[in-house]
Amino acid sequence: MTSDHKKGLTLTFIGAMVITFDTPVLRLIDGPQWTVMFWRATLLCLAVLAWWLVMLAAKKNPPPLVNGKAGLSIILFYAIGNITFITAVFNTTIANVVFILALTPLFAAMISFLWFREQLRPETWLALVFSLLGVTVIVWSGLHSGSILGDLMAASTALTMATAFTITRRTGKDMSMSPILVGAITAVFAFFASDTFSPESFTLGPFTISTLLSGTYNLNILALEPQQWGWMFLNGAILMPLSYSFLALGPRYITAAEVALFMLLETALAPIWVWLVVDEKVPFATIIGGTIILVTLLLHSLYRLHRRTQRPVK
Asked: What are residue 165's phi and psi, to 5 degrees?
């Protein structure tokens, strides 16, 4: 049991650390919302699909693309979260996004308790309180200037991610290949949500196959500048597949609330990475709040490991 918990903590830590680079790389891409969403999701899908095909060719018995009904629901929640996250980033401040996403562990704890009656230990609740305190310190002065749409999208992201973590934890299914369909669904949504069709051939009225086939496609909307492709490839083909796959495996071994706690690393570290790559000043409050979060996560993980090693073997 101890080894499983260590495995869960390790997988989740790696996934959460990788995703801290997501926001600064998105800043470096600096492209239109739907274009970024489309290519980010497409590269995510293709990268994980390539790995799945390699495992299949090597007869390594790869995890299924859809792991039962629970797996399908998890894929849908991840896809919705992917869409709402990008929408939030483009429609409100980064401070608002990371503050609201910090509610993910609280949502996970509440969903686990209300839906599955999973009791959480006092140390986890205490860690949640201190982590949210750290987030509050970081963004206390940055809550103004956000939009209602962006804030609602960020809240939706926190809720859908927490739900996906909780279902994965409850079922114990291997969802490491879920990014394939998550990326595909997101890319299709971005394609049709963007101004891909000219006004003469596409409206929001009744949609038919003949309308699609006769439409005049304006694929220029999906174009990127040459300097943007490198950052897009790093984000969609490397960072996102790694983070999604590891975070999909983590809840098999540790609670959903513990997984969500690690997501707060993005709140603590993303502003630092943004400062390093685009020279944005890191406020002193971010340093203090980030320290609170990192110390809380470290102490919580060490305490959980200590408790498990001290349990008598039956």
From this structure: -60, -40
